[in-house]
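Good day; I would like, with your permission, to put a structural problem before you. What I wish to show you is a protein chain and, alongside it, a tokenised description of its three-dimensional fold. Thank you for your consideration; the sequence and its tokens are set out here:
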Amino acid sequence: MSIVRVPRSAVPPGCALRIEVDGEEILLCNVDGAFYAVEDVCTHDGGSLDQGRLDGCEVECPRHGARFDVRTGAVTALPAVLPLRTFPTRLDGDEVVVEY
């Protein structure tokens, strides 16, 4: 397992940041000060989620409107049926640590 560190200030509340490390495309989301990381690829059609809207704990794919809960990766709206892969996160001082 590897880690990546991101400054907390890089992802304000209600925002998401796409990070790419070692070929992994990860979407780091700040939901009211809690950080969650999911794969940045819609399971419906393979499109990137980073251009989608983060609304509370849900991210919406900008291509076809599939929605996912970033806390669990669960699908919350069709057309996607498969969940997103999630990655553990933790805070270390002023950084968010994502394990992938």
User: Anything to note?
Assistant: The CA atoms of residues 31 and 96 lie 13 Å apart. The chain has one domain: 3-99. The radius of gyration is 12 Å.
